[in-house]
Amino acid sequence: MVTSTKDESEARATGTTTSESGGSARVASPREVRAWLQAGECVLIDVREPDEHARERIPGARLLPLSKFDPQQAAAMAGPGRKAVMHCRSGRRSADACRLAAPLEQQGITVLSMIGGIEAWKSAALPVEVNTRVAGISVMRQVQLVIGVSVLAGSALAWFVDPRFVAIPAFFGAGLTFAGATGTCALASLLAWMPWNRAKVSGASCSTGSCG
Hints:
The protein is built from 9 helices and 8 strands.
């Protein structure tokens, strides 16, 4: 991730950035990516989650969430001889996606991470498409808020009212354990079906066929 002005300047100087997993990826600035898009030299792949993409996206970006990232699907999107540029919100997830997509270099596809993600794109005054009908808080942040409030409330009730209320934080702890072990989060699936998270984006370009 590019975490500071100094980090960004160093990344531009070296042409690499570091992912959360410790790997490195080649990088490009938003304006470089914009020029490549206009020239048809790259595909821009959004590795955020569908609700984030539905709320705000870069025109022409294709959706391939990091949580379901498939390098061969990214290769199909890019095609031989073109650049595959990954982007997320700020650069962390796109660097991880580049690490997963590194084998595509052997197929003649240049893999890069866009410095600073969509936030840097907007800071450069480049266009984005926004759907205000979609919740501004991502589903995963909503999950974190629901679990955090529930654990705090359950702990307070167990301390001040009845020890049996400890079952509330225990329930959510068990749910998190199950989600981590299986990769499936029932609460996230439930929240994704809420009306504020289901607004559609007309003409959206999504790998799954739906941005909902």
